[in-house]
Amino acid sequence: MEYSEVVGIRRSIRFFDPDRPVEREKVQKILEAMRLGSCAMNAHWLRAVVVFRDEMSPESFEKVKLPVAGVIMELAPVHIYCYGDLSVVAKDHGARPKQLIDVGALGPSHGWTYRFIDEFVWPQVLEPLYKNSTYPAAMAFDNGGCATQGLLMAYNLGLGACWTAFNTEGAKEVLGIPDDWLPHYLLNVGYPLESRAAGGQRPRPPFEELYFEGRADNPFRRDRAVVEELEREKMIQAPAPLPGRREEMRQLARKLGLPE
Amino acid sequence: MLVKPIRSHDSVAAWDAGLRRQWGGDPLGEDPAKLEVLDAFCRLMDRDPDELVAFCFLRKRATGERFASAKRREELLLKLKEFETAAGRGVEARRRRSQVVSFLSHNGVLIY
């Protein structure tokens, strides 16, 4: 599938086929996509713990689920618990950006040298960063980008997915999470029982309310021709609700014995 | 024990309105078994539908603000499990439980 279509077909899938397992190699491909995400200073804070639902005991499942996410977690055969490892920068002491110099990604043309990292980047940027209260937010931003690559890979592989919260205290105990891992979200993965369109693209705020040019009070002009091009590429698709969506939801609820 | 008809309760009216808004038509009228299941669960809990919804919430002493009680949710979950198990296993038994969960959801009670 082309990238534009993968972006376009992504929906939060909430009805999974509970009896159709996800192939282990597809799970690995999702993780491989996460690993290749962009990350400041090559830090790579993202950690993910994969749980194959049927390998988790009912007692453990009760500990990790939340009421608001329980149905999705019960239906999805694979759970990928995402965390940020807050210890990375402290342990690393600038070694990871140096790797980027070694492999030719960074160089003196942009001011990057070993000495610059040792004498400026580490003591004046990285060390203060990880002691700063904004550090988790910076880490979470990068981790969200990396995790989204995995999310899109799931759709590229014919799967569906949905981010949910989870019981972080329970998961810490059940999954053996280290103290310095900050919980993010849980990616539920499985084969959708919903149609591929899943009722259509979800509502979004108007483009001009979100994006600006030059100044924060000057909306970025949206070119209709570009929109039409993206429609042809299936990135922008028919908006929800598509005809018959409610009936589809009702039939799925009945099939799975869920509340209406 | 219900002392008045089940449909006369505000919480049942809220369920009815929620189902109509979500699915259209007259879901409670078209499927009277939904009310029978709720009635059976109310008997198990020895509460009428309005009392069942009220049971899920407590109020803060200081402000009077209503909040969902985690302890009572646990209690209700156990009763739902008992209710489901009494109907056997599989999707049919689960549907029975889901009718009650639907009633609770349309009354703002999140339970799973």
Number of domains of chain B: 1
Share of residues in strands of chain A: 5-15%
Q: Helical content of chain B, roughly?
A: 55-70%
CATH topology of the domain at 3-87 and 136-193 in chain A: NADH Oxidase
Features:
heterodimer, A: 260 residues, alpha+beta, NADH Oxidase, four-stranded antiparallel β-sheet, 45% helix, B: mainly alpha, two-stranded antiparallel sheet, 62% helix, globular
Structure, explained:
The complex is a heterodimer of chains A (260) and B (112). With 260 residues, chain A is of the alpha+beta class. Chain A has a domain at 3-87 and 136-193: NADH Oxidase (3-Layer(aba) Sandwich). Chain A is built from twelve helices and four strands; from the N terminus they run ααβααβααααβαβααα. Chain A has a four-stranded antiparallel β-sheet. In chain A, helix 1 (3-9) crosses helix 8, helix 2 (24-35) crosses helix 8 and helix 3 packs across helix 9. With 112 residues, chain B is mainly alpha-helical. Chain B has one domain. Helices cover 62% and strands 5% of the residues of chain B. Chain B has helices at 10-23, 27-30, 33-45, 49-55, 70-86, 91-105; strands at 57-59, 66-68. In chain B, helix 3 (33-45) crosses helix 6 and helix 5 (70-86) packs antiparallel against helix 6 (91-105). Chain B is globular. The chains are: A alpha+beta (260), B mainly alpha (112). The A-B interface holds A 65, 67-68, 70-71, 246, 250, 253-260 and B 19, 22-24, 27, 73, 91-95, 97-99, 101-102, 105, 110-112.
